[in-house]
Amino acid sequence: MVPLLMTPGPTEVPERIRTALAHPIVHHRTPEFTEILDDCGSRLKKVFKTDNTVYTMSGSGTTAMCAALENTVSKGDKVLSIVFGKFSERFRDIALSVGSDLETLQFDWGQAPDIGKIEEALSDDVKAVTMVHNETSTGVRADVEAVGKLVKDTNALFICDTISSMAGDNVETDNWNIDLCIAGSQKCFSMPPGIGFLSVSDKAWPVIENKEQNYLTDLNKYRSKYPQTPFTAPISLIYGLQEALSIIEEEGLDKRVQRHRKNAEFTRTAVKEMGLELYPASEDICSETLTSIRSDRAEDIRSSLKEKGILVAGAQAPEKGKMFRIGHMGSVGRPEIERTLEALKEVLEI
Amino acid sequence: MVPLLMTPGPTEVPERIRTALAHPIVHHRTPEFTEILDDCGSRLKKVFKTDNTVYTMSGSGTTAMCAALENTVSKGDKVLSIVFGKFSERFRDIALSVGSDLETLQFDWGQAPDIGKIEEALSDDVKAVTMVHNETSTGVRADVEAVGKLVKDTNALFICDTISSMAGDNVETDNWNIDLCIAGSQKCFSMPPGIGFLSVSDKAWPVIENKEQNYLTDLNKYRSKYPQTPFTAPISLIYGLQEALSIIEEEGLDKRVQRHRKNAEFTRTAVKEMGLELYPASEDICSETLTSIRSDRAEDIRSSLKEKGILVAGAQAPEKGKMFRIGHMGSVGRPEIERTLEALKEVLEI
Q1: ipTM of the shown complex
Q2: Does residue B17 surpass a pLDDT of 90?
Q3: Any chain B CB within 8 A of the CB of A30?
């Protein structure tokens, strides 16, 4: 038996999408497939709430994170990296690997980034600011809009990872002044992993055009081929993406965001009623796509839930064993959440 | 109607594999999925005919090509790049993009690389040699074994692209002294695109360990996580890969290679009987996984075949319009080839 996936990505993939994956292969360089790519591209713009082009990359979310930094940061460029969990650490590490002059703004796990401190650190010579919207490792949601307002009037590019919020929680790429907005297929899109998404603003292009680029991630190649891709597209996954976008449109993006918020609140209320403690420092910074719960019994709870056929996520280092995380993203709905919470009650013997 | 795919990758994907893609998602960081990755890894070694580990990368074949060069070539390192078509040009361009001191050995399209000239060019200071085994753009097969023998006793690493031959034609990674052997899912594996493969020899590891690495393609990360992957694996495609490997094993790798050779010979004989000219300079350098045919009517022929529900490939620049290519790789068998050749006869009004 395959357990119910209540992890914060990958998520359960609806049968409609899984059936689409099994569609016979159409050659990726035909006009027919170009049309499919074009269709996905224009629909992705609506999900991203952007007028910028959204590029589709064969790979993981990390592929798009690397592409964003490799394309815009040259050796010695000052990068301000806002770190409040595992995935923002990854951003910092990538910024370091491209040879940036790195300034890290570190916040404690479970805390949201302090906007005042970011404002202080945002000097004139900063070339790029990296920030995660929804820290999957801690279940904390950051105020991207506020940081976007600060970065907007500087020369810096605002590079934002919305991998675990896009298509679930509200993300407004253009209104929030995100220059490079990153997402992935396996979170709120309810798709299998294998596609990274990346939108690029007009402010970012001159930087990208005037920089020596890495062969694999060069966004100039992506732009010149669009809606085609410079390298072979993952055809089956693109079929799945089309179906995922249809599911999102049928529900309506705003309604989908409301559903995620209601489900998140429902989950938080239920776990608090069980006497459990939310991991984030306060409720107003809690993620709307996953709930992270502080518990020294985390690994026992996870094992017992797994025996009941439900998979939730543990914590990543350095919090291993002290926290567990329930995903309620994408197509995961109230019935799956209720089943999980019922099982959790049984495990806790409430 | 989806046309019959007789292109040299992507190929028709058998229903068994397409059904496997639709399997419910298992979380990629569970012991259950680690076991699947481990299983694929050990079976891939048999297909590669290597004792080296074969790494599975989320992306395209180009991802693995870039990984091979980025991991082993430092700025200023001398690279000898053997070019005889579009995909060996890509290798050359990647070598250039990593800042190598590049020496290109250029051979005409339709010719196989001249081993004598490679021997002459192989000076002591060469750090890496790049070579394509099966040039999909020209339908020419190169003598990788002979070049491997030359490179073996030098300090250079032998980096070989077997993307369109692995699992179809005979490839002997270890016997041919290939240090970094590259393959992809969408050619003779009959899988959808989305996975690149890369094996790494003992000779290559010290070079990789002692070089500053790119975040995304760093093979040290792949080695330390193996059989797990450093970034999220494309779960659905991995299910497909397992099924593809079962299909290969059920047929038997040697029998599979024989089938490809017989089908290639059958195709060549048939097109010659139609009065068509093979593109490669001589029959002994013809690819066993695709047949390339010289014709000024190439684009007309392709259109007419498409009307009959069969897709073959055209030529890439600079030969556009002067050649077409029939793929006979992976699960494509005699019935599909016969249907294609019959249709070709009708188009040519023979």
Answers
A1: 0.97
A2: yes
A3: yes
